[in-house]
């Protein structure tokens, strides 16, 4: 394997000159730089990244941390977001270091990537609402950007989608079609986005002078099974909803499956609205109306802010909220009243104590079964 000394010998320059070229120093004549680069190419020499990190106090690495591994299953749009981040990281001359929570044993390990000089900064995707991770990043002075979470009281960069506004727009659309009994299947309220979507739902109802019926709010966990159980719960009520707003598309899939098994036609008998616009939402029968996340813009801005923070740690922190996009398809229509079905024997009414629970229940909403 060729060494830096071999490059210096072939280019007929000093070892230090080769080092200056590799590390991007400006005090090298262009003619000399080209000779060194040509020698590197001819020999197939690859600079030692660890040595460069010691010389420059930089790794040119950016860590991407997902605190909740389950998101890779229930939020496939995360893969699109990671692809956007990787493209922008590469474009800026950095490389990506990817970490899932199984790699960490304690809270402090999240900042170890930076402390051990494995990365120059980190992008954290959707940490929990307790904010311990954000606080740890601040305490350890880690250059960082948080995506899909925020805390106005913490001095940290963040980029988030305006999920409250997006959920409100979705529910307002259902109301504009004439729906008054609108159910909601929530996501986990351990996440800011889960709480924001509940708030958007309740605000839309209140703005339209529609009472918030706690029995029409079912706490899910982002998985399709939550949609299945929510359908069974809603249609065990004496007066089920005519439309259901789901906090993500996966749970909407569960609703749609159960509706079909119980001979309900969408949207004739039941309107369904999702969230996130996952790839196959437009290929369902009928195609699912949903809210689309600005993934490409989030990825571009997150990388830009982080690199600026790496280069200037004292720069003011940026706090950015981006709009979601309403994707109108064919899963919503005018309400049909008095829908009553007999649930299939293998789909018993979900009992309250069996509901998929959440760690941090949203305040003021605790749905109870209809008696």
From TrEMBL:
Ranges of residues in domain HTH lacI-type: 2-56
Record CDD domains: HTH_LacI, PBP1_LacI_sugar_binding-like
Keyword DNA-binding: yes
Classification via InterPro entries: HTH_LacI, LacI/GalR-like_sensor, Lambda_DNA-bd_dom_sf, Peripla_BP_I
UniProt signal peptide: none
Keywords: DNA-binding, Repressor, Transcription, Transcription regulation
Domain of life: Bacteria
GO molecular function, one term: DNA-binding transcription factor activity
Official protein name in the record: LacI family DNA-binding transcriptional regulator
Native species: Candidatus Thalassospirochaeta sargassi
């Amino acid at each position: 394997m060729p060494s830096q000394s071999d490059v210096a010998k072939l280019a007929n320059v000093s070892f230090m000159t080769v080092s200056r070229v590799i590390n991007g120093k400006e005090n090298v004549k262009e003619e000399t730089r080209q000779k060194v680069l040509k020698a590197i190419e001819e020999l197939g020499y690859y600079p030692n990244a660890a040595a460069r990190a010691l010389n420059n106090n930089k790794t040119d690495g950016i860590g991407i941390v997902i605190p909740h591994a389950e998101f890779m299953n229930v939020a496939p749009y995360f893969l699109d977001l990671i692809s956007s981040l990787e493209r922008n990281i590469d474009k800026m001359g950095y490389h990506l270091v990817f970490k899932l929570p199984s790699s960490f044993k304690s809270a402090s390990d999240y900042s170890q990537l930076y402390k051990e000089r494995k990365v120059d900064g980190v992008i954290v995707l959707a940490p929990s609402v307790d904010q311990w991770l954000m606080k740890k990043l601040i305490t350890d002075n880690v250059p960082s950007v948080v995506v899909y979470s925020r805390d106005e009281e913490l001095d940290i960069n963040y980029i988030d989608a305006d999920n409250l506004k997006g959920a409100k727009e979705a529910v307002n659309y259902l109301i504009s079609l004439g729906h008054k009994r609108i159910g909601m299947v929530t996501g986990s309220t351990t996440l800011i986005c889960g709480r924001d979507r509940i708030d958007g739902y309740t605000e839309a109802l209140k703005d339209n002078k529609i009472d918030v019926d706690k029995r029409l709010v079912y706490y899910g966990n982002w998985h399709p099974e939550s949609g299945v159980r929510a359908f069974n719960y809603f249609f065990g009520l004496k007066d089920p909803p005519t439309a259901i707003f789901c906090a993500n598309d996966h749970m909407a899939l569960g609703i749609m499956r159960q509706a079909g098994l119980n001979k309900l036609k969408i949207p004739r008998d039941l309107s369904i609205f999702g969230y996130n616009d996952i790839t196959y939402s437009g290929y369902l029968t009928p195609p699912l109306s949903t809210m689309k996340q600005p993934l490409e813009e989030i990825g571009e801005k997150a990388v830009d802010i982080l690199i600026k923070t790496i280069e200037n740690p004292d720069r003011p922190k940026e706090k950015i909220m981006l709009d979601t996009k309403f994707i109108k398809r064919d899963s919503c229509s005018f309400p049909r009243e008095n829908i009553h079905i007999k649930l299939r024997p293998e789909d018993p009414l979900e009992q309250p104590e069996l509901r998929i629970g959440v760690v941090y229940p949203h305040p003021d909403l605790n749905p109870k079964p209809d008696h």
